[in-house]
Structures are given as structure tokens and as C-alpha cells.
Write a structure and sequence with these properties.
The chain is mostly helical. Among the domains are: 65 residues, 5' to 3' exonuclease, C-terminal subdomain (DNA polymerase, domain 1), CATH 1.10.150.20; 75 residues, 5' to 3' exonuclease, C-terminal subdomain (DNA polymerase, domain 1, Orthogonal Bundle), CATH 1.10.150.20. The chain contains 26 helices and no strands. Helix 15 packs antiparallel against helix 16.
Length: 456
């Protein structure tokens, strides 16, 4: 879990004239380690904005703009950061972080241009070369990226970053066993190298080896900086195996440091719904047992002939019927006296029941046949999390932009397949909708195509 967070003095570290990539890395490593650090950085950003508005010295404005752009990048407001850093791209560090912004925005050509500009003053700067290799890999030029990595195999053979990038390139080329060896090598060099831990966990996750994936994700989240995606993926795996409280903890941890994280917020909602669903199932089991008790026939009990005859004439045949009548009602019946009443109260007490229980305002509606809140609110169901789907199925729907039941039932199976939802998830979705009396939209013309695509 999270280690103790460093107390960061942003005013001291963020100076335009002395800022370095090492300092930025330190800040990024620790800003998400605590809610307090994130709040302090947010306050620093607002302060920088006000300073820029008031400052008239052009050089000072450039310094402040550089710092603000880097801060915006640190908190992942990449578009805002890129607009600011464009104004200071003539500075090496400004060009470097503009390159990082372009990389994250998917503009790999401009990212490479910025990284090349950033390394001009130090052509052998290893970490920038790794950024270039990473960008080329992300752009699909994997062979070229691998070539850059291999050029440093002698001089940087003991670098965890080198073996991580090497393994990732091999992953992209489908050489999974060789890739795994390089991730292992990275972890031998640095057992706490978060990127290699995460990638190893992710590969186990994709291969369906959940326990191995959990082991490496759990190692990954102990490392500072805390890897947000490791917490999120670990939370999903916890939820899949029914550890809903642990799953919620993972998502809450991300939100503590990054309150605007949309994925963590969505998954936390799912986890909490699953916790509620779990307790609902326990309650349902209990209610099922109680329902069995209520349906026990009166004839199963040893009652006097008079009591049996009176109850039969009153059409009282089960314990449930007795919970729907009062003492006064029984005593008002001809030939039904105190002795019979005490007999009845005794057999009810054996089962934890009493006369008139179903008539009380606080009685549980599920026991006595009243309409449940769930039934009353069925038509108000909106969020996909209201369906009893697995977390992976819900996550797949969310990635496809489907978050509401209302949107789901407007789609055909073919529509879902075209959005990347296939196989078992389709059956799970149909079963989930059917359970609440709903169905996917039908499209007879798509049946043949559906049959071709569902097995891909």
C-alpha cells in the first residue's frame, strides 16, 4: 500500500531558472502519494496563473509559463500544458516536456521533433533516447525503436529502463517469452522498478493468470510513485474474485490523490454496487429461509381439535396466514378461547413469529408479499452498474461508451459486436437485461453477419 508521502515545498523546487528534469521527476513521483501534496500543487498552479497575469517582465513571464506548463503536465492536463509549453519550446526543458505532451496526445511526429531538439546539447543523453525509442514504438515503428534500444546494450546494460523498453518492443513484435526475460532482467537490476512490475502484471492479467497478476500489481502499488493504473487494474481483479472491499480501497486510493480520475470514480461506483449486491444476496438467502418457515402448514403442528377446526373455518392454513391476523380477530371467532390462543402463540414463538406481524408498518415487505423497493424502482434503473454483470463486462461496455441501460437497449447485437463486445459478454448482457424484463433491439437483417462475427 502507499508509503509515507514526502512533504514537498513546491515554491522552493519550482524555479524557472533552475528547474531540471530530475526535479520534475521527483515532484511527479510524489505528488500523487498524498491528497495533501496534490492540493498543494493545485494551489501552486492557481498562484502561477495569477502571477502571470500581473507580471510585466517578459523574461519572468517565460519562466512562469514554463513552470505552469510543467505543472499542468504533471497533473495530466496535457492539452493545457502543451499550449503553454509551445511558448517556451526554445528552451531545452520546455521542448522536452512539450515532447512528452505530444507523445501522450498521439502526435508522435511532433513529439520526436521536440525530443530531438531537447537532446541537441547532449547527444548522448540516454533517457531522452529512450523517450525517442518509446515514441517510435508507440507510432508503430517498433523495429526502429528496438534498434535504438540495442545501441545502448553495452553502455547501459545494467539499466532497468533499457531492459523495460527492450521487453516492451519484443512484446509488440509478439516475442512474449523474450519480452518476459527482459522484464525479469529489469526487476533483477531494480526489484522495485514500477514500469517493469506493471508490465509483467499486465501480461499475466491478459493471459488470465489472475493470481500472478495480483502478486505483481500488489508489488507495484508499494512503489513510490504509486502507479495509478496498477491500483485500478488490481481493483478490477479484486472485484472479479469477490473481494469488493479491497477493490473499493484501490479505487478510493487513486481518488484520494486524483479526485478527478474518471475511471477510478466509475469503478468505485461499480465496486460499491457489488458490495451492496453481495449483502442483498445474503438478505435474499435469509428471506428465502424465512419464506419457507412462513409457508409451513398449520397441520404440521400438534394442536387441539378445537383449535384446528376453528383455524380451518377461518381459512387459516399456514403460519403466514397467522401473521396476518390479530389476537382480537381470533378471539372474536365463535368457540375460539384463551386456551386456543395460547396454543397458537406458542407455535408461532417457536419459529420467531407472532400474531399480526405482517400487519405492522415496520414489517419486512419481502416476507409478506408486498412490492419491494427494487420492484417499484425497476423503471428508474439507469446505470449499467444496476445490471448484475461481471466487472469486466461492465468495463468493456464503459470503454465502448455505453454507461446507461437506456442506451444499451437501443442497440442490436450487431451494434455491440461492432463496438468490440463479443462472445460471452453478449450472452451475459442479454441475460442481465432479461432478468429485469428488457432485451436488446432486434435486427433480423444482421443475423447472418452476427453468426460470423461472434466467434472471432
Amino acid at each position: 500500500m502507499m508509503k509515507a508521502a514526502a512533504d514537498i515545498d513546491f515554491n522552493k523546487l519550482l524555479e524557472g531558472e533552475t528547474i531540471s528534469r530530475e526535479t520534475v521527476t521527483y515532484i511527479k513521483d510524489h505528488v500523487y502519494s498524498s491528497k495533501e501534496n496534490r492540493e498543494k500543487l493545485d494551489a501552486k498552479i492557481e498562484s502561477l496563473k495569477q502571477e502571470i497575469k500581473k507580471e510585466h517582465d517578459g523574461a519572468k513571464v517565460k519562466d512562469l509559463t514554463l513552470i505552469l506548463g510543467i505543472c499542468e503536465w504533471i497533473i495530466e492536463r496535457v492539452k493545457e500544458a502543451s499550449e503553454l509549453l509551445k511558448e517556451v519550446k526554445s528552451r531545452k526543458i520546455g521542448a522536452y516536456y512539450l515532447g512528452k505532451c505530444y507523445q501522450e496526445l498521439g502526435d508522435y511526429r511532433q513529439a520526436l521533433e521536440c525530443f530531438e531538439r531537447a537532446k541537441k546539447t547532449d547527444a548522448e543523453e540516454f533517457d531522452i533516447h529512450m523517450d525517442i525509442a518509446e515514441t517510435k514504438r508507440m507510432a508503430g515503428d517498433v523495429e526502429d525503436a528496438l534498434g535504438i534500444v540495442k545501441r545502448f546494450s553495452q553502455s547501459q546494460g545494467n539499466s532497468a529502463e533499457l531492459h523495460y523498453q527492450w521487453g516492451y518492443c519484443l512484446d509488440e513484435l509478439g516475442e512474449y517469452q523474450e519480452a518476459f526475460k527482459h522484464y525479469e532482467q529489469a526487476l533483477q537490476i531494480d526489484p522495485n522498478y514500477a514500469k517493469a512490475l506493471f508490465r509483467t502484471a499486465f501480461n499475466y492479467d491478459m493471459d488470465g493468470e489472475d493470481e500472478k497478476a495480483i502478486e505483481y500489481y500488489e508489488r507495484c502499488i508499494t512503489v513510490v510513485p504509486n502507479h495509478k493504473n496498477a491500483f485500478i487494474n488490481l481493483g478490477i481483479l479484486y472485484e472479479d474474485r469477490g473481494d469488493y472491499d479491497d477493490a473499493a480501497y484501490c479505487f478510493e486510493t487513486v481518488l484520494d490523490a486524483d479526485p478527478t480520475n474518471a475511471r477510478a470514480s466509475l469503478f468505485l461506483k461499480d465496486a460499491r454496487a457489488s458490495i451492496s449486491m453481495y449483502y442483498d444476496e445474503e438478505i435474499s438467502k435469509k428471506q428465502g429461509r424465512e419464506s419457507e418457515v412462513l409457508n409451513i402448514p398449520i397441520s404440521d403442528f400438534e394442536l387441539s381439535v378445537r383449535s384446528k377446526n376453528c383455524l380451518e373455518k377461518m381459512s387459516i392454513r399456514t403460519l403466514k396466514d397467522l401473521t396476518r391476523i390479530t389476537e382480537a380477530d381470533l378471539l372474536s371467532f365463535k368457540n375460539f378461547g384463551e386456551t386456543s390462543l395460547n396454543e397458537i402463540k406458542a407455535i408461532l414463538a417457536q419459529k420467531g413469529l407472532r400474531l399480526g406481524q405482517a400487519l405492522e408498518s415496520d414489517a419486512e415487505p419481502e416476507l409478506f408479499g408486498k412490492k419491494t423497493t427494487e420492484e417499484e424502482d425497476l423503471d428508474a434503473m439507469e446505470d449499467i452498474s444496476d445490471l448484475r454483470l461481471s466487472s469486466r463486462c461492465r468495463n468493456t461496455l464503459s470503454k465502448a461508451g455505453i454507461d446507461r441501460v437506456e442506451d444499451l437497449i437501443k442497440m442490436t447485437e450487431m451494434d455491440l459486436i461492432q463496438r468490440g463486445i463479443k462472445g460471452n459478454y453478449l450472452e451475459e448482457i442479454k441475460e442481465g437485461l432479461s432478468a429485469i424484463g428488457l432485451n436488446l433491439k432486434t435486427d433480423d437483417n444482421s443475423d447472418a453477419e452476427l453468426e460470423r462475427n461472434v466467434t472471432e
